[in-house]
Amino acid sequence: MRAFPSDRTSSPTDEDHAVCRAAIRAGSKSFYAASMLLPPKVRRPSYGLYAFCRLSDDAVDEAGGDRAAALARLERRLALAQAGLPQDHPADRALAEVLAVHAIPEALPRALLEGLAWDTQGRRYATLSDLSAYAARVAGAVGAMMSLVMGVRDPNALARACDLGVAMQFTNIARDVGEDARAGRLYLPLDWLAEAGIEPDAFLADPQATPALRRVVARLLDAAEQLYARSEAGIALLPLPCRPAIRAARLIYAEIGRAVEANGLDSVGRRARVPGARKASLLARAAWPIAPVATVVDAALPETAFLVEAVLRHPAPSAPATLPAWWDLSGQAVRVLDLIEALEERDAFRRSAPS
Fold first, then answer.
1. CA-to-CA distance for 272 and 57, rounded, in angstroms?
2. Distances (CA, A) of 32 to 6, 153, 204, 280, 335
């Protein structure tokens, strides 16, 4: 395994980790809430991974007409991080450490950049399989990397982590149909739109939550739900202290889908949100010990198989990090209660703020 340089310019500092933590707190309240249930040994590197993902997404979005150059710069930064020679940026140093310590093959973060490249090309997706290939890159790869951070390299667990990532991306797409359309982006499978009698360019010119479009959104949420169900078996393969956080992420993201349904499947004129009190309830549910789901050995999705294979070809770390073998119910409960209080205070502030 590659040795990680010990010099100060390459090794992440406490300040670097704080910057990464702030990035996830600002960029994804759902993921941040779930991450509070992770053991500290896993939480910190997960923030490093997320910070680079967030940085990559923002760099492309903010590049204007020079997105290809922005992607080229990101690919160079990834290559340097993979070599243990990161650029002078908190996210780069944190990523370099995570990649080295947890033996993450370059194919996984590079898949994420490939998905971002597809975004810059304005690519559309003819079938659900094509959309799954995109989701595998921008979300399934992150799921696989998180598994490695938790010390899990079992192919079945990796396949289920990818299932969960793809399901989350489907949920995001279903929630953001209107927002994407107003930005000129369309992710819904083109063959589904054709079956529903929706012409893509006409829809982008005038996005409307017609009954036909609502049926397409419902269909995508159903596909996500099937993958959420498949992912449950993988959660049972994770270290016991890590299961509550991943289950919380699964429950919260699935709840976003329920919120879309509660809005009448109108994700053009309305944006589905999960209230803080409901998130708190789901976090508490995830933190409570439950009987593990029977593990079913199932193949990876064809679209995510390359991620699993990349891990299996890559040498494992020589001394993987160990996590406590017991269930720290009291510690988990304290974190959940603290988070419930924070979420409730935030919701109360929003309700009292003048409109």
1. 22
2. 29, 24, 32, 12, 12
Is residue 157 within 8 A of residue 237, CB to CB? The reply is yes
Backbone angles phi, psi at 280, to 5 degrees: -60, -40
Contact 223, 131 (CB under 8 A): no
pLDDT in tens, 197-225: 999 999 999 999 999 999 999 999 999 99
As given in the structure block, the two tokens for residue 165 are 């990532």
Nearest CA-CA partner of 177 in 215, 139, 141 = 215
Length of the chain in terms of residues written = 355
Cα 300 to Cα 144: distance, rounded to the nearest angstrom: 12
Report d(CA 157, CA 336) in Å as an integer. Answer: 26
Per-residue pLDDT tens over the stretch 19-37: 888 887 877 776 777 777 8
**Token representation of residue 283:** 């976090």
Q: What would the two tokens of residue 316 be?
A: 């494992």
Q: How far apart are CA 313 and CA 332, in angstroms?
A: 35
The answer to whether 92 and 75 have CB atoms below 8 angstroms apart is: no
Residue 350's H or E segment, with its range, is helix 329-352
pTM of the complete model? 0.85
238 band by pLDDT with thresholds 50, 70 and 90 = very high
